[in-house]
Design a protein that fits this description.
234 residues; alpha+beta; OB fold (Dihydrolipoamide Acetyltransferase, E2P); 2 domains; 5-stranded mixed beta barrel
Length: 234
């Protein structure tokens, strides 16, 4: 314990102790009948992480979704970072424990290596920088592994948030900017979904049977562009 609280090891020792404390709290919470991880996940705000999920759903359905992100608008940098770290697919507390473990262990290993070579330790702030950035890929790798292991409940209900990136067919009316028309698509469970779609650009029209790629959800309807990618199908 004294070793972990030496000045050169302090942030890394704290990370390991915090990891142990979280494990203990999670165990107590489970005994009491409620998981601490689930409680924290419920407190987190919804983030725009649907895009990867949309592509996964389409690939599960046997569709080739070789689509450039620029074609449908890219999510924010924060959303991409959270998605890259598997947040939203793996319980946040699990990812945090992985981060604390990798940060603490790699920090101690780095300081011991530097000390063995030079005879002195790096300042903790300087040692923390490379360790911090090196920990993030580890969180991603283990997050993806755990995400495949954690059982997922199959459900035929899908959220309208996952509609973005799908191809729909205009079924009724003519869509213009500010004047949406009805469109339809069938999900991987065979269920049909009807929604209102309008063009992204003024002056453009969508006619019946046109194939439309959904970009985002607008105020009153989904915004889309004409599907020109033959690999994307409804």
């Amino acid at each position: 314990m004294n070793y972990l609280f030496e000045p050169a090891m302090f942030p890394f020792g704290v990370a390991l102790l915090l990891m142990s404390g979280i494990g203990l709290l999670e165990g107590v919470a489970m005994v009491l009948g409620s998981g601490l991880s689930q409680f924290i996940d419920n407190l987190l705000p919804d983030t725009d992480l649907d895009f990867d999920l949309d592509m996964d759903l389409d690939m599960d359905a046997g569709l080739d979704t070789d689509l450039d992100l620029a074609e449908i608008g890219s999510p924010s940098a924060l959303s991409r970072l959270l998605g890259w770290l598997c947040i939203g697919h793996v319980p946040i507390l699990v990812l945090f424990v992985i981060f604390l473990a990798s940060f603490g262990l790699m920090g101690i290993a780095l300081q011991n290596t530097i000390n063995g070579i030079t005879g002195f330790y790096l300042p903790t702030w300087l040692a923390s920088i490379p360790v911090l950035f090196a920990s993030l890929p580890i969180v991603r790798v283990f997050g993806k592994i755990i995400g495949r292991i954690i059982p997922k409940d199959e459900t035929s209900a899908i959220s309208s948030k996952t509609f973005r990136g799908r191809v729909v067919t205009i079924t009724l009316g003519t869509a213009e900017k500010g004047n949406p028309a009805q469109a339809k698509f069938t999900d991987r469970f065979g269920q049909s979904h009807y929604l209102m779609v309008e063009p992204e650009k003024a002056g453009e029209q969508f006619q019946q049977n046109d194939q439309i790629l959904l970009l985002k959800k607008g105020t009153n309807a989904f915004i889309g562009i004409r599907n020109t990618n033959e690999k994307l199908v409804n």
